[in-house]
Every structure is written in structure tokens, then in C-alpha cells.
Amino acid sequence: MLRLLVLVLILANGAYFAWSDGWLRAYGFAPAQQSEPQRLAQQIRPEALRVLTPTEFRRVEAQVQADQVPKECLKAGPFDDAQAAVLRRALESALPSGSWQLDSVTVSPRWIVYMGKFANAEALAKKRGELAAMNIVPQTVGNPDLEPGFSLGGFDSQAAANTELSRLMSQRGIRTAKVVQERQGGLQHELKLPALTPEQKGRLNDVKPALAGHPLKSCG
After folding, report:
1. By CB neighbour count within 10 A (0-12 exposed, 13-18 middle, 19+ buried), where does 195 fall?
2. Of 63, 143, 176, 217, which is most buried with the most CB atoms under 10 A?
3. What rounded mean pLDDT belongs to the chain?
4. Does 160 lie in the same domain as 122?
């Protein structure tokens, strides 16, 4: 009886081994396959994975933190060739490469109804107050050669500026304004600071003298 029991156990173990190892798959007896070859196929260069050293990890962590710092986009211009050359030298000294760009832009000529030049800041402020009393809001001129002064309107043609000057003289009593060309048309340059960090923004004081009076404005 004991021999029979041992023989049955041996046959049962052999049958289980044959079933679990897939030897009976051709006869329809085999466990369900658990492998997922599609997951292996989806792996992208697993051999390229490596563990970072502490120094490399700190470098990556510092880069991630730098990428999370709020950034600001500023622009200024347009600048003629001579102004752009001076500005380029200032930017190269103050800001890292890649943090700024000088793009070539085609600008149209522009005429303004102009008041100025005033003798000093006091005279400028007095005239601004007189215009405010007339509900006229003067604008900053875009040409530093016209400072101190301001614009009562900008136009793409001299004829349009002359028409506005005539209207201001007849309807608003303006007597000391005139039409001047604020800028020439043609190929010029525009400064763009696409992702300025707070630390880089602090260095702009070294660049401002080279901006030729052009204000830095938001790219938006």
C-alpha cells in the first residue's frame, strides 16, 4: 500500500512538472502565460539608464530650480546700426550669452505732432499741466533727440500728422506744436530679452545707458 502511495505521488509530481513547464501545451494542458512582451517592446534604450553621482544630482537639481524661477520678457527699440553696435557691447558685458537677442526689423517712417524742446524739466511739467487742463494726454517721444518734449499723436504719413495738427489748432487752441519726423523708415534692430530672471534684471542698470533713451517694455 505504501509503495502504491509513493508511486502515485511520484506520478503526480511528474505530471505537475510537465504541466507547469509547458510540456503538455500541445495537448491543451498548460498554465496561462503571464509574460508581457509588449512592455519590453515599449522600453526606450533601457541600457542608457544610469545612477547619477551626488555631484550630477546637485547640478540637475539646481537646473530644475533655475527653470522654476519666474521669468519676464522685455523688449526695446528700434535701434539704428550705430546704436545697435553700442548696445551689443553693453549686453555682452552685462548678460550671459543666449539671454538676449538683437533682431533685424523693418520699421515704417513715423511723424508726430510735437511739442518741444523745452528748456528744462520744470517747463515740461508746466506744459503737461496746461494740456491736462484741456483734457489732452501727451505721449512720450520715441526719439531721444527730441527730448525734453512730447508727442500729441503719431502717424504713418506726414499728411496725416499735418491734418491732426490743423485739428488741434482750430479745435483745441494749440499754438506751439509742429509736425516732425520721429523716426526714419527702413531696416533697424529690436532688442528682446525673452526669459529674464530676477538676477539678470538686476544687471540691466549696466545696459540702460546703451539703450539710447528707449524704454524697456513688456513683450506682451
Report:
1. middle
2. 143
3. 82
4. yes
Backbone angles phi, psi at 135, to 5 degrees: 60, 35
pLDDT band (50, 70, 90) for residue 62: low
Q: Does residue 102 sit in the same domain as residue 195? A: yes
Asked if residue 117 is part of any domain, the answer here is yes
What is the pTM assigned to this prediction? 0.51
Closest CA to 79 of 201, 205, 213: 213
* Same domain (yes/no): 114, 160: yes
Range of the domain at 77: 71-107+186-218
**Per-residue cell: 110:** 513715423
Among residues 73, 72, 76, the alpha carbon closest in space to that of 211 is found at 76
pLDDT at 7: 62
